[in-house]
Model the fold of this input.
Amino acid sequence: MTSRVALVTGGTGGIGTEICKTLANNDYRVVASWLSGVDDGEAWQAKLKEEGYDFAIAEGDVSDFESAAAMVKKAETKVGPIDILVNCAGITKDSFMHKMKHDQWDAVLRVNLDSVFNVTRQVIMGMRNRGFGRIINISSVNGQKGQIGQANYSAAKAGMHGFTMALAQESAKKGITVNTISPGYIATSMVAEMGEKIVNKMIEQIPVGRLGQPEEIARVVEFLAADESGFITGANIAINGGMHMG
Done:
């Protein structure tokens, strides 16, 4: 069988990079999306090539429907029809609600939630026609429990799992599974930039006593992407070190 094709949005980020590497290590052909002005996809591609990975990249703004459509078209031209979609792109713009500006709300909802529709809409028909698909949405523990200063982020991440459950029911008989992964606090550069004092306070909230590793998220993505995981759909898998148990 020809290896499956996976598209990872936000693939050049900390968690996204590990997802790309783990999928490639398991014989998937991988394309990562990136956004000009936010990151440098070509530099990322070159760096990973030095590590032995031959990733395709496709530039586009996943928060914009037309740009997402063009990005997926570029991706499929390079690697073929998308079998596995990992919706990993996301941002934060934190603020208490009484201070939150509309553009902070709007940007987070567009990037974190609208993007899931924008990209999934481009690949779902092909998956239905071929009778196979894996859609994996990277949400957050804060979509499950909420977080002070993150009404926008928590709403978007909770919305992702509502999307998952609805699409899972629509797609089950077409060989397509749709699942959510909800990471807790993960050791990425974004978390490290918060400073040692804040990170230590985060760790105090985690029963296992440490941050998660991006590789631990990627391992679950690979598990859900497998052909053999076809009986798991509509699930929300928490990876948070015991920080929140539903």
Notes: The chain has a mean pLDDT of 96.
